[in-house]
Amino acid sequence: MIDVLKYEGEKVVVTGVASGMGEETARLLSKLGAEVYGLDINKPEIEIDHFIPVNLNDKSSIDDAVEKLPEKISSIFNCAGVAGSTYANKSFSRLDVITINFIGPRHLIESLVPKMKKEGAIAILSSINGLGWTANKERLLPLLNTSSFDEAQEWYKENEKTFMEPYDETPIPEYTVSKELVTSWVKKRAYELSEQNIRLNSVSPSAVNTTMMDSFNELTGMDVMATSRSKIDRESEREDNAKVLIFLNSDLASYVSGQDIVVDYGFSGHGIHGLI
């Protein structure tokens, strides 16, 4: 068969390789012949070519990881993230969640842009929780316009009240804010990166059958998987989303950039029309 994906021998970076969709993405890329550089705070159980520990909540850890990566890479897959204030038996502040899900990945990606080959590609996991970014873009833009890890953190500390609902002063869930930031950043940054022939896209899954679902259920007090699916007779699996990430960074999507691909088998469209 013709190699339409063209990952054979390519150096790719995958974050979140110790679990969930990051682990599945790294596994599939290895099968496609890519040389995988896996980043995570925990060591993965799957076999990959290179593992580099990284804490996306720590700028110095990100910078150390960047130094250990090769001089030329072709693709970045950012799959790392946390579900909210509690995840994997750990507690996180609102700033931690914003940093791990957006500020840290943005810093990593921007630090790797100079290392990217011409016609390189970046895919980052967002969420259907981030689909409301257009309604909140005025609140998001000042943070998006920060130019560094430290500046972004300081802005958020000083302006956290910005992310409050306009009437009842109920904080917007930090996970939702982080994913709105991811999706809106992709829309904004993709145009600028086009000058360097680098593509940037995001993937927004609905509920996926991973260990993160336990944290979502705990945080919301409900069965998220059962209430966030269409009429298809199976759950969304890790591989469903990993395949879309791999497609977006492949040669098949060579003119696709600035897009957010929703992977939910029609669920969110049903909600947009007020039917949920």
Automatic annotation (TrEMBL):
<dbReference type="GO" id="GO:0008202">
    <property type="term" value="P:steroid metabolic process"/>
</dbReference>
<protein>
    <submittedName>
        <fullName>3-alpha-hydroxysteroid dehydrogenase</fullName>
    </submittedName>
</protein>
<comment type="similarity">
    <text>Belongs to the short-chain dehydrogenases/reductases (SDR) family.</text>
</comment>
<dbReference type="InterPro" id="IPR036291">
    <property type="entry name" value="NAD(P)-bd_dom_sf"/>
</dbReference>
<dbReference type="GO" id="GO:0016491">
    <property type="term" value="F:oxidoreductase activity"/>
</dbReference>
<dbReference type="Pfam" id="PF00106">
    <property type="entry name" value="adh_short"/>
</dbReference>
<dbReference type="InterPro" id="IPR002347">
    <property type="entry name" value="SDR_fam"/>
</dbReference>
<keyword id="KW-0520">NAD</keyword>
<keyword id="KW-0753">Steroid metabolism</keyword>
<keyword id="KW-0560">Oxidoreductase</keyword>
<keyword id="KW-0443">Lipid metabolism</keyword>
<dbReference type="Pfam" id="PF13561">
    <property type="entry name" value="adh_short_C2"/>
</dbReference>
